[in-house]
Design goal:
The chain has 240 residues and is mainly alpha-helical. The chain has one domain. Helices cover 40% and strands 4% of the residues. The longest helix has 23 residues. The model has no long low-confidence stretch (mean pLDDT 80).
Length: 240
């Protein structure tokens, strides 16, 4: 947009964008929709919304509370999307078409795996195109920054997966609350039982029936860092 015309999306606009682009709603058990609640206790008013009764003027200048809402949204929505996507076969996914949860960027000796790194970068390009509406070359500094964020998060996290919790161990769990891995999030159809002996990566991401998923390689949580970066960026939450 033109200089000086950028503005933060309204709660209703951001809600529609999340649902249209990511195919999920930002919600909780109490409030299925936290940005556009029908009399619920969501974040609509904290994010500058109006109720046409007590609050009739929108907040034009973002404040610290609104920044906190953006951070929480990016964490919770990003987490749900990753779990939901990785529970589907790769060909059926919308956002993570180029990678599996078993795709690691470096080998055991710390050397880059060219094919894996290329697939991760290609997926970052796809995420930026989908979430930001921007087309980047794989060699663009924006893509490089996101790739480095992914690798650094993955390296640091994987080193702590099997450590004792008292020693800072992070465990293998990837859970966002809710039982989002029991259904195909795009169609709403419940997953049937997996075929005996099926070791496909997406089967393991369908969880234990309690919303918990195993992330032993820390790839899911590394993608979380990338999603938080993309979803909290001005390119996603502003009308530029």
């Amino acid at each position: 947009g033109a200089v000086g015309t950028a503005h933060l999306l309204t709660p209703e606009q951001l809600n529609r964008k999340i649902e249209n682009v990511l195919h999920v709603s930002w919600g909780s058990y109490q409030d299925p929709n936290l940005l556009n609640p029908g009399g619920g206790n969501g974040f609509k008013m904290l994010f500058g919304g109006i109720d046409s009764v007590d609050t009739t003027v929108r907040i034009q200048d973002p404040n610290g509370i609104m920044a906190n809402v953006i951070e929480r949204m990016s964490l919770e929505v990003g987490c749900e999307v990753i779990g939901s996507e990785f529970s589907l076969p790769q060909a059926e996914r919308v956002l993570f078409k180029n990678v599996e949860p078993t795709t690691e960027p470096l080998d055991a000796n710390g050397y880059e795996i060219p094919e894996a790194a290329a697939n991760i970068k290609a997926n970052i390009v796809h995420l930026m195109s989908t979430l930001w509406g921007e087309t980047y070359a794989v060699t663009d500094p924006e893509v490089t920054r996101a790739f480095e964020l992914y690798v650094q998060t993955w390296q640091e996290g994987k080193a702590l997966v099997n450590k004792d919790p008292e020693m800072g161990g992070l465990g293998t769990g990837f859970a966002c609350g809710g039982n989002f891995t029991s259904n195909n999030y795009l169609t709403g159809v419940p997953f049937g039982p997996a075929a005996e002996g099926d070791k496909s990566p997406h089967i393991a991401w369908r969880g234990d029936g309690e919303g918990g998923v195993n992330d032993p390689l820390y790839t899911g949580r590394a993608w979380m860092a990338v999603m938080v970066y993309l979803l909290s960026d001005a390119t996603f939450v502003y009308d530029l």
